[in-house]
Specification:
By secondary structure, this protein is α+β, with helices and mostly antiparallel strands. The chain contains 18 helices and 7 strands. The protein has a 4-stranded antiparallel beta sheet with strand order 1-2-3-4. The chain has a 3-stranded antiparallel beta sheet with strand order 5-6-7. Strand 5 and strand 6 form a beta hairpin. Helix 2 crosses helix 3, helix 4 packs across helix 8 and helix 16 packs across helix 18. The radius of gyration is 38 Å and the shape is rod-shaped. About 0% of the residues have low confidence.
Length: about 425
């Protein structure tokens, strides 16, 4: 008399396999006794190779005809039904390698998805912003410091979970929330800068797919949309300063600094007499970029992705004298430690404020706008003022075809400026007008 499956399993030796019967449409049901109990398997042979797929643990207390596994395991009937499901998949996919081929394909897909997810997580928003800051630094753009600061203070610190998300998954709403937090803290200009830097970082990553000059690492972010571009800036925070220093205030400022001794006084005079250049650019002057009649600064506020543009400023005799007193560094020209580091832009701004105690609401940035206003009133054209202060160069003609250095025109404008601020007499006639 044939033994039942239960009887066979009761006598099964530890570690041994036993066949419990064929499974339709392919394979057989097997069992193996282990220390933890009896495991049930579906076994099939395909292309000469045997494969076992584990079904589960045998539950000797389950109803024999139960087709649903219990909390403890499977009855023989339930195990047979599970094996038949495997067999049907095997038969339906023989051309793809049968059940084993399906399983391998699913595992490969799972691994690929896991790898893609891991790659995406390693290309987070924080990583994108840091890579963008590194890219700016490699291009010589001083704004990389600002990008790093805003990323740390206004993205990573308040939004750590969002910063850790894959950059390609960031939404416009999340960018807007970051901006809103800045705005609610009274930092409208910071909100706009955050948006601007994020927009530029995403545009760099997006353009990397078709622009070979962008480092390959940006392409790996897989960015196809720019979430920051879909947000709106706070226009009220972008309004320019409408309070340029008046000519009388410029004269008052000159009186305060013309005899100020030492490095501080010389540097303040150099800043004024060279046309109120951007302070960050002026303090970054290299000793190698000084000639007897000019200095060369590097303007990093140009088009995104472009290296800093050389900006040559001629020197009047008075400006050259101030430079001789101030330029004491061997590397960084304007330095208090022999050229190892340059004086900080914030330090120069603070010195200017300390000197301008007689000017209400003085800010160093008002010097630059005041100088341009005074030169405009004296008849210096907008083009020459732009060339002098490095903010009026645009258009294809100016960038690609106009090779004139405008040195004479810039020097003439600086001579006009010097006469304007160093005299208390009535304003000289406008350029092109006759005296008296």
């Amino acid at each position: 008399m044939d033994k039942t499956a239960g009887q066979v399993l009761r006598t099964l030796e530890l570690g041994k396999f036993v066949s419990l019967g064929k499974v339709h449409p392919a394979g057989a049901l097997e069992a193996r006794r282990l220390a933890a109990g009896i495991s049930l398997y579906w076994r099939v042979t395909h292309n000469g190779k045997a494969h076992r797929e584990k079904i589960g643990i045998y539950d000797s207390s389950a109803p024999p005809k139960s087709l649903i596994p219990t909390e403890r395991g499977f009855s023989i009937s339930a195990a047979t039904r599970a094996a038949e499901a495997f067999a049907l998949q095997h038969e339906a996919n023989k051309t793809q390698g049968g059940f084993v081929g399906i399983k391998q394909a699913k595992e490969q897909e799972r691994q690929q998805q896991a790898e893609e997810r891991e790659k995406a997580l390693s290309h987070s928003l924080q990583a994108l912003m840091e890579d963008y800051a590194d890219h700016l630094e490699a291009l010589g753009r001083r704004s990389h410091k600002d990008v790093r600061s805003i990323t740390g203070v206004h993205i990573v610190a308040p939004w750590p979970k969002v910063a850790a998300l894959p950059a390609r998954e960031i939404t416009p709403e999340q960018v807007a929330d970051m901006m809103r937090r800045c705005l609610e803290g009274g930092k409208g200009r910071t909100a706009n800068k955050l948006r601007s830097y994020m927009r530029a970082a995403y545009q760099t990553a997006k353009a990397a797919r078709t622009k070979p000059s962008i480092p390959l690492r940006f392409k790996e972010y897989g960015v196809s949309i720019n979430p920051a571009a879909e947000t709106a800036p706070d226009e009220s925070a972008n309004k320019p300063d409408k309070r340029p220093l008046s000519l009388e205030e410029l004269r008052t400022y000159w009186k305060a600094i013309k005899t100020l001794p030492g490095f501080r006084g010389a540097l303040l005079r150099l800043h004024l007499l060279t046309g109120g250049q951007r302070i960050e650019q002026l303090v970054s002057l290299k000793a190698s970029n000084i000639t007897p009649d000019s200095i060369t600064l590097y303007d990093g506020k140009g088009r995104p992705g472009k290296p800093p543009r050389p900006h040559i400023i001629p020197l009047t005799p008075a400006a050259a004298g101030a430079l001789t007193q101030a330029a004491t560094g061997l590397d960084w020209a304007l330095s208090t430690d022999g050229g190892a580091t340059h004086v900080a832009a914030t330090t120069l701004s603070a010195w200017a404020c300390d000197a301008a105690t007689e000017i209400p609401d003085f800010q160093a940035k008002r010097l630059r706008s005041g100088i341009e206003t005074a030169l405009a009133a004296a008849g210096i054209s907008a083009e020459i003022r732009g060339r002098l202060q490095s903010h009026g160069i645009g258009g294809v003609q100016a960038r690609h075809y106009d090779g004139h250095d405008y040195a004479d025109e810039k020097l003439a404008a600086l001579e006009v400026l010097e006469r304007l601020v160093t005299t208390s007499k009535p304003n000289p006639p406008k350029v092109g007008q006759r005296k008296g």
